[in-house]
Amino acid sequence: MADPGPVFAALSDPTRRAVLEAVASRGTATATELAGEVPVTRQAVAKHLQVLADAGLVSPERAGREQRYRLTPAPFTEAVAWMAEVGAEWDRRLARLRRAVGGHS
Amino acid sequence: MVVEQVVRRTVELEASVEDVWALLTEPEGLAGWLGEEVELVPEPGTPGRVRPTGGARHRLVVDEVEPGRRFGFTWWPVERPTDASRVTFTLDFTLDADGPRTRLTVVEVPVVRAGGRPCALGLDGDVWADRLLGLELTVLARPCVPA
Hints:
The complex is a heterodimer.
Chain A (H helix, E strand, L loop, with lengths): L4 H6 L3 H13 L1 E3 H5 L6 H13 L3 E6 L2 E6 L2 H31 L1
Antiparallel strand pairs in A: 1-3, 2-3
Chain B lengths: L6 E7 L3 H9 L1 H5 L3 E5 L7 E6 L5 E9 L3 E8 L7 E12 L2 E16 L2 E4 L7 H13 L7
Antiparallel strand pairs in B: 1-7, 2-3, 3-4, 4-5, 5-6, 6-7, 7-8
């Protein structure tokens, strides 16, 4: 399973999440288009989009003088799968711990 | 700052804090529920290892030890050292008519590497599970526009 760290790190910033949701609502978007939807400058939006791209959450393509970003949702699925898998492991471990406590106390 | 939980579980155990602490921090105790081949000394900075039941062999480093209260370590599969995550146990003593109980909470968060140094995610806001699932629903409900 892919390392979920970069995805969680990219989504740790509330403005970045807002940028991603804005891309999601549009399907594709440029930094200029998104600057009107989130309360930060176009330059800040562009930086957030680059971080999201580095995490694989959006993919850039050239659109004239700008980059147009498209959602690439696969890392979401991988991160959610990591949470489900690790959570299930802890459920099993804690069930064993509960049994161990029964014989311990 | 509120520390985020990526994976978080809480259980109530019918045992004293002392008994639960031993099960979390002593190799013999851990061998009864976490895994096999346990090597662990509950002192910060100390390396160890464990093979979780049904899983791959892991290395670990103890991060924090607050006797009877908190115990944490960072661990990673031997074969995939970049897939590190931080595990923290928190214990709370409770008492009811049946005797002492311990509320145990375990949190596991991925570790990201910042400037070459691993650091666990410490984040403000909502719980990750809700946040990520909400975002996923937003994203997946709107399929990517064809190129």
